[in-house]
Amino acid sequence: MGDTSLSEVQVSVIIPAYNAGRYIASTLQSVTGQTHANLEILIIDDGSTDETPDICRRIAADDPRIRIISTGNRGVAAARNIGIEASTSDYIAFVDADDLWHPSYVETLLSALHPLPPDWGAVYALHRIIDSEGYCTRASSGLSARGTVLARHLIFRFVGNGSGLMIRRAVYDEIGGYDSAYAEHGIGGCEDLDYELRVAEAFKIEAVPLGLVGYRIHSAAMSSDSSRMARSLLAVYEGAIARNLQLPRWVVDCALASVHLYAFSKFIAAKNWKNAANSLKQIFRFSPRLAGIVFFGLILSKLRRAARRAWSKLVTTKNNLMKFEQVDPQAPLGGGLSSFRTEKLLKRLSEVDRALDISHHQRRSEMSFTNNAPLGNGDPFAL
User: Fold this and answer.
1) What is 4-224's CATH number?
2) How far apart are CA 170 and CA 116, in angstroms?
3) CA-CA distance, 251 to 259, in Å (whole number)?
4) 100 vs 105, 190, 327, CA distance in Å?
5) Which of 124, 203, 241, 253 is the most core-located residue (most Cβ within 10 A)?
6) Phi and psi at residue 227, in whole multiples of 5°?
7) Do 215 and 160 meet the contact criterion of CB atoms below 8 Å apart?
8) C-alpha to C-alpha distances, 41 to 21, 33, 144, 204, nearest whole angstrom
9) Rounded distance, CA 332 to CA 330, Å?
10) Where in the sequence of the chain do the CATH 3.90.550.10 domains occur?
């Protein structure tokens, strides 16, 4: 790094690992190979019954920055909290045991967050989807937002995984750690989004709009349980809305339509028809226009899936895919906008976030935000 003072700043890396033997070595390689070398690497072995502990011990023997903490199986949120408590750095970054970081990840995020005032509590990067072998299969949304991002993050969910966030320790000191109650109630999976929203409620957040995270999709991943992921996200939104009664009614309706759209797709994937029908009903309640898009989309979905599978066999081979580490982080990501997540909606939400920022800093509200406020312009997605 060119900035000597920044190179002296230590960053703690928290890696929760449960039966991650297939991927943990490549994840650790992506962490230990960071251009910012001043790292404290804590692996929280969350009661693994496979070869994960042995692999970690072998790698740790050659790298004094690595420390292994073994616990009973309590879930990813509890494991992250154990790691935070055991860490000693003023900056803390999280990566799941099957994901990858670009070599410049820590350096880039630390360079973005470190110079900012203390009310900027965190920074995030974007990601690319990788398969079980580490090949990039598609890019994530290229949309991002910075500053006070609560309203925008509720609808657009910019981060998208648990491996793209770095926080100041002051964030943990103020809001605490990840919520382990999701796993205790059998709906673990979206604790990372819950934490991002809680950070956004108390701090400004910086954005690095580069695909510096390789987010791995595979059959053993927590995210592969579609029905549980849907229920987890619905619970996250229920909590976030209950905590933020100052949000305008139309923003709440946008959030509920957005989360039920996600839940609907997951319930359909899990063939959970009863819950899928309920989510479609909720989408119609909060946005008839969006419900219409979803309903007519269902008619064509089987044809589209068949066409995608056929096209995928023709053009998606290992010969034309690149490994995550081979992809230029400056390469464009996906667009991120759609017929309902529009540029106009993003701008309206930005105005809400600006008002929230004023409220935070001036200790008074300059806009009237109540859940009993009129809907405003009707269907929030009809923008």
Assistant:
1) 3.90.550.10
2) 13
3) 12
4) 10, 19, 12
5) 124
6) -65, -40
7) yes
8) 17, 12, 28, 26
9) 6
10) 4-224
Output the CA torsion 67→71→77→82 (10° steps): -50
| DSSP code of residue 38 | -
Nearest one of 250, 163, 236 to 200, comparing CA atoms:
236
Predicted TM-score (pTM) of this structure: 0.90
pLDDT in tens, 118-162: 999 999 999 999 999 999 999 899 999 999 999 999 999 999 899
Cα separation of 154 and 127, whole Å?
18
Q: Taking 90 as the threshold, does the pLDDT of residue 362 lie above it?
A: no
Phi, psi of 149 (to 5 degrees): -120, 10
Region for residue 376 given its phi and psi (left: phi exceeds 0; alpha: psi -120 to 50; beta: otherwise): left
CA 317 to CA 314: how far, in whole Å? 8
Give SS3 for 118: coil
Q: What is the pLDDT of residues 19-53, one digit of tens each?
A: 999 999 999 999 999 999 999 999 999 999 999 99
Distance between CA atoms of residues 181 and 198, nearest Å: 15
Q: What are phi and psi of 166, to 5 degrees?
A: -125, 135
- Tell me the one-letter amino acid at 190: C
CA 82 to mean position of chain CA atoms: 20
Identify the three-state secondary structure at position 275: helix
Taking the CB of residue 158, how many other CB atoms lie within 10 A of it? Answer: 25
Confidence of residue 373 (pLDDT cuts 50, 70, 90): very low
Strand, helix or coil at 43? Answer: strand
Compute the Cα dihedral for 31, 54, 189, 270 and give only its sign: positive
What lies within 8 Å, CB to CB, of 345 at 6+ separation is 155, 254, 380, 381, 383
> What's the CA gap between 246 and 303, in Å, rounded?
43
- Quick one: pLDDT band at residue 307, thresholds 50, 70, 90? low
| φ and ψ at residue 66, rounded to 5 degrees | -90, 135
